[in-house]
Structure formats: structure tokens, C-alpha cells
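User: Hey, quick favor. My workstation is busy. Could you predict this chain's structure for me?
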Amino acid sequence: TNLLIAFIAFGVGAVSGIITEQGIINSTFGLVIALTISVNLGFFAFNILPIPPLDGSRVLYAFAPDFLRKALIF
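Assistant: No problem, here it is.
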């Protein structure tokens, strides 16, 4: 979800002209867009860590072989 929100915020910034090839335009809206992207990418990186109860442990469980799944049951 956080990755999707970051992509949506980037898209809104790009379509509105706040995000250009030179970077983000220095304005209040530009600051909000930059902060939204940064915070959501940070939350995404934190949540993908394979530590229970974070979402990364569920992803690890989904791709783990059967013998390892028995050890990962939580």
C-alpha cells in the first residue's frame, strides 16, 4: 500500500508540474509531495523487513520451501 501511495503521489506531482527533470519545485505543494513520497517509501522499506509481525515475514513465508514454512509458523 505504501509503495502504491508513493507512486500515486509521484504521478500527481509529475502531472501537476511540481516534479520536473530538474527536481521538485520549491513550493508548499512540492514539499507535501516530496514528504508524501519519502515517508511512504520509508514505511514500505520498513514493512518489507522479514520480521514478524511486519508484512515482510508474510512475503518470506509465501516464498519459503515447505520445510522452512514449518519453522516460520507464527
